[in-house]
């Protein structure tokens, strides 16, 4: 997968999360988790774009580590929505799958870059 395709995937993830959060029930828990979820999911793509403009391998690795962390945090918030019974798992299953794939691809990229050092 090339850089542009990955940028597109991260943006689609963010848009999917935004759409999901807009459909959450109106409760304090849903509001708090929804805000955190939007922050982490949108951060994935923003930090990937930043990594693409990294000044050195070390800089790119540091930024990709943030992408990995934010994507993993996104999975956490999605799981919390399900386990708190705020949404049905089927309603976020695709977002979980997409995010898990982004984590796996990011980890693979980090390993590749470390191997080149």
Descriptive account of the structure:
The protein has one domain: Up-down Bundle (de novo design (two linked rop proteins)), CATH 1.20.1440. It is mostly helical and 117 residues long. The mean pLDDT is 97. The protein contains four helices and no strands. It is elongated, with a radius of gyration of 15 Å.
Tags for this entry?
single chain, 117 residues, mainly alpha, de novo design (two linked rop proteins), 4 helices, 85% helix, elongated
**CATH T-level fold name:** de novo design (two linked rop proteins)
**Helical percent range?**
over 70%
Sequence of secondary-structure elements:
HHHH
User: Could you list the spans in which at least 5 consecutive residues all have pLDDT below 50?
Assistant: none
Count of alpha/pi helices: 4
Distance between the termini: 22 Å
CATH domain class name: Mainly Alpha
**Can you name the CATH architecture?**
Up-down Bundle
Shape: elongated
Q: Could you give the count of β-strands?
A: 0
Number of domains: 1
**Structure classification:** mainly alpha
Strand count, sense and barrel status of the largest sheet are:
none
Computed CA radius of gyration, to the nearest angstrom:
15 Å
* CATH fourth-tier homologous superfamily: 23S rRNA-intervening sequence
- If you average the pLDDT, what whole number results? 97
Strand content: under 5%
């Amino acid at each position: 997968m090339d850089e542009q395709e990955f940028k597109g995937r991260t943006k689609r993830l963010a848009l999917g999360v935004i759409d999901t959060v807009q459909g959450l029930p109106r409760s304090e828990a849903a509001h708090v988790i929804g805000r955190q979820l939007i922050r982490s999911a949108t951060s994935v793509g923003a930090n990937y774009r930043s990594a693409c403009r990294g000044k050195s391998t070390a800089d790119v690795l540091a930024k990709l580590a943030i992408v990995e962390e934010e994507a993993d945090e996104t999975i956490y918030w999605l799981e919390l929505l399900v386990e708190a019974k705020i949404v049905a798992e089927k309603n976020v299953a695709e977002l979980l799958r997409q995010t898990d794939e982004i984590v796996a691809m990011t980890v693979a990229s980090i390993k590749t870059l470390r191997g080149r050092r």
